User: Which sequence fits this backbone?
């Protein structure tokens, strides 16, 4: 079997439109005769890309390559259980649609969620985890965080602005920060590095900072 398509097999739940790339415009082109009927077995690949602002995923049905709108793939069936993992959301997260547009749904900090184990790029190319129930996507920076270097020795603080302990994180050591920064009552900004653990933004080395 073609290894490109050994990702997951699903059955369509209703009539689904499929697309091919128009050789003249380079854009997806719909042909009514290529619609997939209800309960068609399709193999879903990991080949997903944004074309003209819409996300498409490559699938195979009846030994023929097709493009489907990613939102139609998501709505067809949840992910293979073998592809699902449980992650902890470390920063309150917006749930995005398949075009990386924010929805009204939010997921609170420290909540455990089931997501597909592999991240994917949507929108401008940022990495997201897809929720296992197909309801949307979460930025992976709110789950896995980003590794950053310290430009100063740094203390760890609690969300009340007081030191969490007497431990000092050494200059040039690496910490993982989650999501955006928080502004505390003292007017200073902090990054979360763990549950109720924060570090001052001023201690983080960014790209243009001297070593």
Assistant:
């Amino acid at each position: 079997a073609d290894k490109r398509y050994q990702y997951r097999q699903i059955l369509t739940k209703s009539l689904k439109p499929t697309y091919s790339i128009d050789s003249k415009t380079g854009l997806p082109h719909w042909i009514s005769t290529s619609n997939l009927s209800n309960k068609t077995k399709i193999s879903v690949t990991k080949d997903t890309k944004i074309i003209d602002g819409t996300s498409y995923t490559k699938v195979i049905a009846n030994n023929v390559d097709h493009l489907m709108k990613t939102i139609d793939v998501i709505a067809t069936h949840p992910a293979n259980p073998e592809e699902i993992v449980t992650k902890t959301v470390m920063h309150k997260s917006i749930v995005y649609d398949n075009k990386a547009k924010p929805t009204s749904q939010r997921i609170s900090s420290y909540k455990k969620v089931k997501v597909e184990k592999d991240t994917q790029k949507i929108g401008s190319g940022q990495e997201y985890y897809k929720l296992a129930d197909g309801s949307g996507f979460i930025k992976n920076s709110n789950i896995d965080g980003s590794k950053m270097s310290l430009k100063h020795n740094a203390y760890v603080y609690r969300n009340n602005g007081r030191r969490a302990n007497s431990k000092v994180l050494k200059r040039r050591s690496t910490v993982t920060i989650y999501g955006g920064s928080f502004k505390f009552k003292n007017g200073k900004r902090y990054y979360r590095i763990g549950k109720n653990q924060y570090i001052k933004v001023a201690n983080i080395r960014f790209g243009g900072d001297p070593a």
About this structure: Residues 81-141 form one domain. The CA atoms of residues 156 and 165 lie 7 Å apart. Confidence is low (pLDDT under 50) at residues 1-6. Helices lie at 70-76.
